[in-house]
UniProtKB/TrEMBL annotation:
Origin species: Teichococcus deserti
Phylogenetic placement of the source organism: Bacteria, Pseudomonadati, Pseudomonadota, Alphaproteobacteria, Acetobacterales
InterPro entries hit by this protein: Deoxy-glucuronate_isom_IolB (IPR024203), KduI/IolB_isomerase (IPR021120), RmlC-like_jellyroll (IPR014710), RmlC_Cupin_sf (IPR011051)
GO aspect biological process, one term: inositol catabolic process
NCBIfam families listed in its UniProt record: myo_inos_iolB
Keywords per UniProt: Isomerase
GO MF term list: glucuronate isomerase activity
Name of this protein: 5-deoxy-glucuronate isomerase
Length: 266
């Protein structure tokens, strides 16, 4: 029986939308996530009344207008593996208009907000980069909207995991509202593979195993993490990229490792 945690891309709709994840269809409260593949000359217009947006330019070039600001011809990656992205933060109550002369792919990440922050451009040089882990646990992290950057609810990050390595590992969870030890954060994983024909593996499970799903993830799939531990494995020969979107009642990333894995260190 298919798991509701694994979402495959659909055929593009009139707006080029491949994924449409809302709190309603995910069965949770905070995170919204969409992916749009814009044809040459196409555009996307949206206005959120009570949600902030982080628009991540996955590939191609776009022009983004938010309120009275316009960010011309941003982006440029041929692949999501090609360095840090350009992104735009948009508060609720301001119209967001995205256009692309030559075509592009964009991710639309949303979460509840009141509108106390202004719109802004997040260029690649503002994206913090770090290496996390070692050996076959090494991965490359690009912090687009970490908890040290200004936003009301959203946390957004890209991760590149070399083939043969593990990521989001050792297994960790952030489903308990127990600050400063742990924060409750819903999360989506949007997965892309560097070459066709491969797959990755993601497990989502809780200590009591009331939730325990192991999924073979293909290029373009999204995995929902409502709670529990959620490690990812990238088989040899197939580098893996994913975009994480997190949000919850407190904007901080505090997690707990699975007790039997904690000896490994982060």
């Amino acid at each position: 029986m298919p798991t509701p945690l694994l979402r495959h891309p659909t055929a593009a709709d009139a707006n080029g939308r491949l994924h449409h994840i809302t709190p309603g269809n995910a069965g949770w409260t905070y995170v919204g996530f969409e992916v749009h593949r814009l044809a040459p000359g196409a555009g996307l217009t949206r206005e959120e009344t009570a949600r902030e947006t982080c628009l991540v330019v996955l590939t191609g070039h776009v022009t983004v207008a938010v309120g009275d600001q316009t960010f011309e011809n941003i982006g440029g990656r041929a692949s999501v593996f090609d360095g840090s992205p350009w992104s735009v933060y948009a508060p609720p109550g301001q119209r967001l208009v995205v256009t692309s002369a030559a075509g592009a792919e964009v991710a639309v990440c949303t979460a509840p907000a009141t509108g106390r922050l202004p719109a802004r451009l997040i260029p690649p040089e503002a994206v913090g980069q770090e290496l996390r882990g070692e050996g076959t646990n090494l991965r490359h992290v690009r912090n687009i909207l970490p908890d040290t950057a200004e936003a009301e609810s959203l946390l957004v990050v890209e991760v590149v995991t070399p083939g043969g390595n593990w990521s989001s590992y050792p297994p960790h969870k952030h489903d308990a509202d127990d600050f400063p030890n742990e924060t409750a954060l819903e999360e989506t994983y949007y997965h892309r593979l560097a070459r066709p024909g491969g797959f990755a593996v993601q497990r989502v499970y809780t200590d009591d195993r009331s939730l325990d799903e192991t999924m073979a993830v293909g290029d373009g799939d999204v995995v929902l993490v409502p709670r529990g531990y959620h490690p990812v494995g990238a088989p040899h020969g197939f580098d893996l990229w994913y975009l994480n979107v997190m949000a919850g009642p407190r904007r901080a990333w505090k997690f707990t490792m699975a007790p039997e894995h904690a000896w490994l260190g982060w």
